[in-house]
């Protein structure tokens, strides 16, 4: 039995409901981001890269984990979180900037565009990992800015998300 006439609306060609849009978006994310993405997978991923106890990581990264678990595989999400952390390490409101950036990437961009930026963050963090901690932020910022610039040239900028992310990164660079 259709719930609230949902199937009937589809047959009549009515505009998709929020639930319909959510289903389509979840399928698109699942296609672009295959892999283990449970909270347990993130726990294992963080333990691989960090000596901190999981309770500490989970309490400090709760909002970021909520955006990524069940959606982005831990092997990509964990290094992306580390990338954002060093990117905004000197930002006056680092937690807010990190949460805003990840929220824009995950909630405002298409799965393909989000994947481009998350892979860029993860790669940038892994490339900067061997440097002294105070030199990691500028390297991650440069690589992430390059990925943002590439996306600016596409239709990804139609909603202004890419320029908002660029501004957020620019704020961080001025603080150095």
Topology:
Blueprint: H1 6-11, H2 18-32, H3 39-49, H4 54-60, H5 62-68, H6 74-87, H7 94-108, H8 111-128, H9 133-152, H10 161-175
Helix pairs in contact: 3-6, 5-7, 6-7, 6-8, 6-9, 8-9, 9-10
Can you give me a brief rundown of this structure?
The protein is an all-alpha fold and about 180 residues long.
Describe this protein's structure.
- The structure is a single chain.
- This protein has 176 residues and is mostly helical.
- It has helices at 6-11, 18-32, 39-49, 54-60, 62-68, 74-87, 94-108, 111-128, 133-152, 161-175.
Mean pLDDT: 86
Number of helices: 10
Rg (CA only): 18 Å
For the secondary structure, the number of strands is 0
The outline comes out as: globular
* Main sheet record: none
Instruction: Please give the alpha-carbon distance between the first and last residues.
Output: 59 Å
The ordered string of helix (H) and strand (E) elements is: HHHHHHHHHH
By secondary-structure content and strand pairing, the structural class works out as: mainly alpha
Helix content: over 70%
Strand content: under 5%
Low-confidence stretches: 171-176
């Amino acid at each position: 039995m259709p719930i609230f006439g949902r199937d009937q609306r589809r047959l009549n060609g009515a505009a998709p409901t929020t639930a319909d849009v959510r289903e389509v978006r979840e399928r698109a994310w699942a296609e672009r981001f295959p892999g283990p993405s449970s909270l347990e997978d993130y726990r294992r991923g963080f333990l691989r890269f960090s000596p901190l106890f999981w309770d500490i990581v989970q309490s400090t990264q709760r909002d970021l984990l909520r955006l990524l678990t069940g959606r982005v595989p831990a092997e990509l999400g964990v290094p992306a979180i580390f990338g954002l952390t060093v990117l905004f390490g000197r930002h006056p409101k680092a937690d807010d900037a990190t949460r805003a950036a990840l929220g824009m990437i995950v909630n405002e961009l298409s799965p393909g565009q989000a994947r481009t930026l998350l892979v860029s963050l993860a790669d940038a963090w892994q490339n900067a990992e061997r440097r002294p901690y105070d030199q990691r932020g500028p390297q991650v910022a440069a690589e992430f800015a390059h990925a943002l610039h590439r996306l600016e040239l596409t239709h990804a900028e139609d909603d202004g998300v890419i320029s908002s992310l660029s501004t957020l990164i620019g704020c961080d660079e001025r603080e150095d």
